[in-house]
């Protein structure tokens, strides 16, 4: 469960659907670190979930051209025909899946795709199986939609991956969805075809369970890892799988707010009903930019991978050199989820005992001025997440400070 600040202001009674939901720990830490920076403290923020490079120039030019052409009005409800075509071609070219245009939907970020999908399909009490550690929004969105997140712990020893027996055990008559994310935010762990296969076999035995896959970090994988998405492995699941993706991470377009998905026509239609009452359509200019992102040159993706891999190696070896920290080498994304179990129970120079991963990350922020996010924010402790989508100089300095701070624990 996310560590949340409850929304309790005098004179305001929040709706019960958000009673247990609040601003995520990631945003809280980001705000605190930014405030410390404004006070002049040399804080290094390794908490952000976005690439540190700029949107490619051809994409920016396409947006400017769309404005000049007057593409500044409402568009078709769940995506322009041009963007849906580019997405269908992307699914064919990169994933080997055929989605017709009415099996494709576009929204204001993959986050809205998730929201539309759960709003359109989950009834009160319906269960959604989510392996932990998980991207914090998953369980909160499910809860807002009246569903029940069923969180399954998958620790470093399990490669942060769900096991077949765990899935079998978690499925009930009320299970509506299983939600898988590969490569994962926050662990960077990814499912190979061999990892996916037994899980998909379990799903084949349970026709009432639908599969939602979040492939957001598809293009950020290392060491020759072969990304594959479940429908390409098991076409029989196509009529009950929603394959989610977006331009935010691969094309450094987090602020453009475009996410998309392929799935069964009836679900896609129901999601459009929700969208029609929420945002009417995604931004026209961002959609034009996304057509160029998907159809334009893709060569820079490999270059970015090489740079991210260099950062990953630096961080993983730097963390593993510290006593009490244990860091698995992730297959993808730009995060590592390091274990800090060896530091629990130690005492800081100020005499405070480190009881939890949040105590440890608070200590790092206060003493080393390095902002990272505790595992508890992602539903699994004792760990912490580092985002390494930042400069090599900052990463080296941060690792040095973390090592020094850990060395002072007794
Ligand atoms: N899925 C995952 C796993 C993510 O990490 C994020 C962003 N942090 C999203 C989905 C949402 O991306 P967006 O809304 O920017 O498309």
TrEMBL record:
Its cofactor is pyridoxal 5'-phosphate. Pfam families: Aminotran_1_2. InterPro entries: Aminotransferase_I/II_large, AspAT/PAT-like, NHTrfase_class1_PyrdxlP-BS, PyrdxlP-dep_Trfase, PyrdxlP-dep_Trfase_major, PyrdxlP-dep_Trfase_small. Keywords: Aminotransferase, Pyridoxal phosphate, Transferase. Signal peptide: none annotated. GO terms for biological process: amino acid metabolic process. It catalyses: L-aspartate + 2-oxoglutarate = oxaloacetate + L-glutamate. One of its GO terms (molecular function) is L-aspartate:2-oxoglutarate aminotransferase activity. It comes from the Bacteria. PROSITE patterns: AA_TRANSFER_CLASS_1. Residues 43-402 form the Aminotransferase class I/classII large domain. CDD domains: AAT_like. Its EC number is 2.6.1.-. Homodimer. Belongs to the class-I pyridoxal-phosphate-dependent aminotransferase family. PANTHER family: ASPARTATE AMINOTRANSFERASE. This is Aminotransferase. It comes from Mycoplana dimorpha.
